[in-house]
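User: Fold this; tokens only.

Assistant: Input:
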Amino acid sequence: MNRKKLFFLSFAVFLLLSINNAFAKITVISVKGRCAYRTAGKWKSLRTGMTLRQGTKISTGVRSRAVLDINNHRLTVRPLTMMKIYHNSLSKKRSRTRIGLRRGSLRAKISRGKKVRTIFKISTPVATSSVRGTIEDVSYGPTKGMIIKVIEGIVAGENINGSRRNIRGKQIFVQKVFDSLPGDILSDVKKDAIVSLFDRNMTKDEQDMFDTNDDNLTDENSSTTGAIDMGKLNKAGVNITVQWQK
């Protein structure tokens, strides 16, 4: 390929990227406390009304937070958080954003247009969340790993091994640093239950077995080990009310 063709090819790629990013906009909505951003190798104070570019890093201090508008999506950067806007583009057909979370916590409120395909991802060293029109809380630290909580809608969490979970409601996605699989999506619900669901002497492997195989423990026609054979019981109705602590 001669230099002339290479020049025109490079120019075409540059023009395409410029068109896609012409609609993209990252605006600082509000700043509280000590917040900074880094671009071109220098840290500077983050201020309300600023316009940021992709590739910008943001850091928040104690009792500090920043709120960003990214292509009409709202991202709240909570205290003691370090993050980077790796990619942000917007065209008439697609909105695409990827945030890297090194430590701390974020809340993302993602708007979803009828004609624009939205892809919004938050990545950590252990997993990635993907949302389209929803609200989520995402946190990451070396001890607890990555935690995704759904405030509204559905969120997909996927770890670096390709294991994927779709979560909603009170479900959560937990991926610890040294675990090969995500944790139980109902761990928060079980933790807050009034009645313990497992014997305290049960090992984690035994609890995981119940999590994955509890639908096989009872059978309408024949009993299995530890199951109740409903055919041998008198037909009687029992009303049970389960209460959860808030």
